[in-house]
Amino acid sequence: MSVISRTIVIYFIVLLAVRIMGKRELAQLSPFDFVVSIIIAELAALPMEEKNIPLPEVFLPLGILVCLEIGISYISLKSPLARGWIYGFPTVVIAKGKVLDTNMRKLRYNTNDLLAQLRDKGIMNPADVEYAILEVPGTLSVIPKPDKRAVTPEDLKLQAVPNDCFIPIVLDGVIHKPNLALLKQSEAWVIETLARENLTPAEVFMATYSAKEGLKISSKKGESIPPCCKFLEH
């Protein structure tokens, strides 16, 4: 089997393995998930570099890793104790505006990282924080003090307006039939609506529908870029 053929086969096998293991963002990988991902990458790279390695010898350990990942995920789903041992627990690093240096030392989490993640949340002073919790994936959840958080409609005793949901109807020239079924509309309705704008579905880059604003259309012809934004192209 040629290098190209082996690469294509390995690519689809690894893709299938990742799909079987489930959806997980890179930032949400636990230490166990991260180790499995590294091993899978190494297993996939070896047969592409070494032609003398039979592909079945790669698929067997790959299958074992997938089974381990699914098994560990199932165990952690059923057992809080196992979940804590495998994935760890969130840790409070700021309480009532005070940085908890004991917890910071246990985590080997330094003040520069803490301040950087606070700034990323728009907070410059740790004293403005009610609680800050370092989550298992390494992200920082921040709860500002009541007098430092953003004002909400509830604070002002105002009636909040529900968010309008924009449903994709046409994507890159193709009518999205499942979403039309949700709206109880037909393709003829889409075509007729677009025709009023002198457009066909093939000429539409994206069209979305909301109960409040109706159909919003972005054609493939595009719009001219305002002069103030020209510098972004360079």
Q: Counting H and I runs of at least 4 residues, what is the number of helices?
A: 8
Stretches with pLDDT under 50, minimum 5 residues: none
| Overall spatial form | flat
Helix content: 40-55%
Whole-number mean pLDDT = 81
How far is the N terminus from the C terminus? Answer: 46 Å
Profile the largest sheet.
4 strands, antiparallel
Strand proportion, as a percent range, falls in: 15-25%
Helix and strand string, N-terminal first? HHHHEEHHEEEEHHEE
Radius of gyration using CA atoms only:
26 Å
- Structural class by sheet pairing and helices: alpha+beta
Give the strand order, joined by hyphens, for the main sheet: 2-1-3-4
- How many beta strands in the DSSP annotation? 8
Total number of distinct structural domains: 3
What features would you describe in this structure?
The two termini are 46 Å apart. With 234 residues, the protein is an alpha+beta fold. The mean pLDDT is 81. It has eight helices and eight strands; from the N terminus they run H-H-H-H-E-E-H-H-E-E-E-E-H-H-E-E. Strand 7 and strand 8 (214-219) form a beta hairpin. 44% of the residues lie in helices and 16% in strands. It has helices at 3-21, 31-49, 56-78, 80-87, 101-107, 111-120, 177-183, 187-195; strands at residues 91-95, 98-99, 129-134, 140-144, 167-171, 174-175, 204-210, 214-219.
